[in-house]
Amino acid sequence: MATEHHYQELIDIFDNCFQDEFNTRLIKGDDEPIYLPADEEIPYHRVVFAHGYYASGMHEISHWLIAGKARRELVDFGYWYCPDGRDAETQSKFEDVEVKPQAQEWLLCVAANFPFNVSCDNLSGDFDPDRIAFQRRVHAQVMVYLQEGIPARTAKLIEALREYYQTPPLAAEQFPWPEDLN
């Protein structure tokens, strides 16, 4: 079992799963993450993650997995994003749209035996987000996926990660309740 996680492993696994069928590649970026659809210059879609950080790759992949076909034709999936420094109302809206991607990210992380941390992504905000409450929402969505089924693209990537990292099938016990986390 691999104990260290290198971004190239994640690139290879992702590309092997999705490059042919979805014309999409995972790309190590030098700056902020972004999703770029194919264009006149580059004939394939790009999920660009920040600075070669494995965790950033996992997070950006989770957004790609959530995006439907029409959204995958738009820069950054056409999603709204308000940068760090959000007020309480804007942070609440941000968390609403992040529950499902972060739940899928948690599934991927467990499949890869990689640590997962929810991201409230508001270090410069004028208040402290309730990280535990947000993680409870993400945890609840993970349980829904485990009980009702994991979307097909996500399931395909989970299996590829499990095979590469030699991890067991996903089960509810692998996803601790927020208070149980250290």
From TrEMBL:
Pfam families the record matches: EpmC
Molecular functions (GO terms): translation elongation factor activity
InterPro entries on file: EpmC
Keywords: Elongation factor, Protein biosynthesis
Domain of life: Bacteria
Protein name: Elongation factor P hydroxylase
Organism per entry: Buttiauxella warmboldiae
